[in-house]
Write a structure and sequence with these properties.
By secondary structure, this protein is an alpha/beta fold. Helices cover 45% and strands 15% of the residues. The protein folds into two domains: 218 residues, Rossmann fold; 95 residues, Rossmann fold. α10 links the parallel β6 and β7. It starts with 5 loop residues before the first helix and ends with a helix.
């Protein structure tokens, strides 16, 4: 499977015009003074379905051949990819079946169903979602949409990088670094591809939860390594077992490095996002902000953009983070 190019990302951006939202860059003068640098956030919780995943899902579905669309699509996801696929397929009048872990946040399950998808729940510890997806595609002829390891998905997510480049140019600033949440690596890979062309001097960092930092470990090792988690993280969107093949081929070439943050640091970042930017972030969506706030990335004297990837969080979890 060929790797996507910047041309593919620009093509995705054209297709997404009028469909996806161009999310803004936000900053807080109070926070900048506290950090001693300039921090801008890209709030993808304001995107259609509340996360960046809509970008890649729409780009993929829009390119399914017409004679194949009648068979529908199938995807597996803990929630954000699920909602992106469900929303995009609904726009094209297509049926969608989404395979979700039974312990996914209830808001993600209910939102996916509300978008018209058929939801199939599975046990993470006892069942393999890939096997369920294979069975459904064989029975129905549906098109499988992988959550991150696909050129069209990566290209769609890369439109974030194009927007960041255009927005910072319009503001007259040069960004020293961009920090992005990382699960399977599609978001940071697409964004890195776009910025390699649009802002080549910008450093790019993946950010993951502690004990689920397979991309960071793989970057150091120079090969794909799997997680051996010793504890559970509440960053449910970022618990991919290992980097994707395509995403790592891109990230190993373009990323400056990988960072990891604790759940406590993520919780504090969720508080700051709510207080300073008035946005609601899910745990996985706040890891890059956590890296800047905790010092995992030292922003002193620099200008950095932080991607906040989504805001689909159960009320109880969000309330606990604010009180923590």
């Amino acid at each position: 499977m060929d790797l996507p190019s910047t041309t593919d990302i620009k093509s995705a951006a054209l297709g997404l015009e009028g469909k996806a939202r161009v999310t803004p860059l936000l900053e807080s003068q109070i926070l900048n003074e506290r950090l001693g640098g300039r921090l801008l956030i890209k709030p993808e919780m304001l995107q259609v379905t509340g996360s960046f995943k809509f970008r890649g899902a729409y780009n993929f579905i829009s390119r399914i051949p017409e004679d194949q669309k009648k068979h529908g699509v199938v995807a597996f996801s803990s929630g954000n990819h699920a909602q992106g696929v469900a929303a995009a397929s609904k726009m094209f009048g297509m049926r969608s079946t989404i395979i979700m872990p039974e312990d996914a946040p209830e808001i993600k399950i209910s939102n996916t169903r509300a978008l018209g998808a058929d939801v199939v729940l599975y046990n993470r510890k006892k069942e393999a979602r890939e096997n369920i997806g294979r069975r459904i595609t064989e029975e129905t002829g549906a098109t499988l949409i992988r959550p991150y390891d696909d050129p069209l998905i990566i290209a769609g997510q890369g439109t974030i990088g194009l927007e960041v480049a255009a927005q910072t140019r319009a503001m007259g600033i040069v960004i020293d670094a961009l920090l992005s949440p990382c699960g399977g690596g599609g978001l940071v890979a697409g964004t890195a591809l776009a910025l390699a062309d649009e802002s080549p001097d910008t450093e790019i960092y993946s950010v993951e939860p502690e004990d689920y930092d397979d991309t960071a470990m793989s970057l150091i090792a120079g090969e794909r390594l799997a997680n051996f988690p010793r504890k559970v993280s509440f960053c449910d969107a970022l618990l991919a077992p290992e980097p994707g093949e395509l995403t790592f081929a891109i990230n190993s070439r373009l990323l400056t490095g990988g960072l990891a943050v604790s759940d406590d640091e993520v919780g504090r970042a969720m508080q700051v996002a709510f207080r300073e930017f008035k946005v609601v972030s899910e745990p996985g969506g706040a890891v890059a902000l956590a890296a800047a706030l905790s010092g995992a990335y030292d922003i002193t004297g620099k200008t950095a953009v932080v991607v906040m990837s989504g805001g689909n969080v159960d009320g109880a979890i969000f309330a606990a983070a604010l009180q923590g």
